[in-house]
Write a structure and sequence with these properties.
Chain lengths: 114, 224
């Protein structure tokens, strides 16, 4: 079985599962997200942060992350219609926008039937 | 393309077990390219049905939902029979199938020997009927996932809760359904005499006549 990983931050260690998600969601904070992204060579720009916060809010309200079409619709509403598309979301997180927003957002790996 | 689909979401109830295997076998033999899709607790029925079905060389495509399998057997688990697939496979097949039968939470195989109604304009409105209460959080979640799958693919679909199925809308555990109405993903209806107490979900309450109209307008009905 793949081993658990550790994220070192501010003198402490945060446990990550083999997929890189926080073992304990209560360990999450925005500095944790920033550090996870830094280790991945990624900068969390405003738009990436918008998606992470939207996914976290959706998870809090409905107990699961949003569908891609919901995220696109919300982006159109919150950010503007010009670039709101699944293509833009994939540019933000090429490995899967919703899945990566969950990971950086301290949420479990999404279970997807699609 | 599959001309027939059987959606299996649980083992048949004891009352229906005797007729189920015969009905399914007859349906599989009557079609050229049948698909049997196992979802949720229906996975428990896969080994038995695959063993009892038409023999090797038959055209039956046994598919098992990837997420349902991983929930029960862990990530990357192989299918006990058939192949692993997702709801994309299922809903793509729904679009082309001439007949769709389902074994839902009620444990009864809803078998429709007549071809599905052809809607005049060539569309295929889908109605997901939910008439039985979930016996577990997992059943609750997996029923919701059937609806979210249709929503993710932007299908022309609606959900109709009735009878014991109204239990899906009760309590805090029902909040997952709220995203469907909050974001306008699918039509969502509850056949009830009055507004459902204890539910914060903006589902449209309909009477029996309106529910019958929803059923009549559907090109395909899935009994979940």
């Amino acid at each position: 079985m793949p081993a658990e990983r550790k994220l070192a931050l501010d003198g402490g260690e945060i446990a990550l599962d083999p997929d890189g998600h926080l073992v304990d969601p209560d360990d999450w904070s925005e500095p944790v997200a920033e550090e996870m992204a830094r280790l991945d060579g990624l900068e969390l720009c405003d738009l990436r942060w918008w998606l992470i916060r939207f996914v976290r809010a959706h998870y809090g309200a409905y107990g699961m992350p949003p569908l891609m079409r919901v995220a696109v619709k919300a982006m159109r509403r919150d950010v503007g219609p010009e670039d709101a598309s699944s293509r833009t979301l994939y540019r933000l997180f090429p490995d899967g926008p919703i899945r990566e927003a969950c990971r950086y957002g301290g949420l479990p790996k999404p279970e997807s039937c699609i | 393309m599959n001309d027939y689909i059987a959606l299996i979401r649980r083992m048949p109830s004891p009352d229906n077990e005797a007729g189920f295997a015969g009905d399914l076998a007859a349906a599989l033999q009557a079609h050229e390219s049948p698909l049997v899709f196992f979802h949720g607790d229906g996975i428990d029925a896969l080994p038995e049905l695959a063993a009892a079905g038409p023999g090797a060389g038959s055209a039956v495509d046994y598919c098992i939902c990837k997420t349902s399998l991983e929930r029960r057997s862990g990530a990357g688990a192989p299918a006990p029979a058939g192949r692993v697939a997702t709801l994309v496979t299922f809903y793509q097949a729904v679009h082309s199938a001439r007949r769709i039968d389902s074994l839902g939470l009620g444990g009864c195989f809803c078998c429709r020997p007549q071809h599905r109604r052809q809607v005049e304009d060539g569309s295929n409105p889908l109605l997901l009927e939910i008439g039985f209460a979930p016996a577990s959080m997992r059943q609750r979640r997996e029923t919701l996932e059937m609806a979210l799958g249709a929503a993710a693919l932007e299908l022309d679909a609606a959900v109709l809760f009735h009878g014991q199925g109204l239990a899906h809308l009760a309590g805090d555990a029902a909040r997952g359904w709220a995203q469907i109405t909050d974001f306008g993903l699918l039509g969502m209806y509850a056949q009830a005499d009055r507004r459902i107490s204890g539910s914060q979900i903006a589902v449209q309450t309909v009477d029996a006549a309106r529910a019958a109209d929803l059923r009549a307008r559907a090109g395909t009905i899935l009994i979940l």
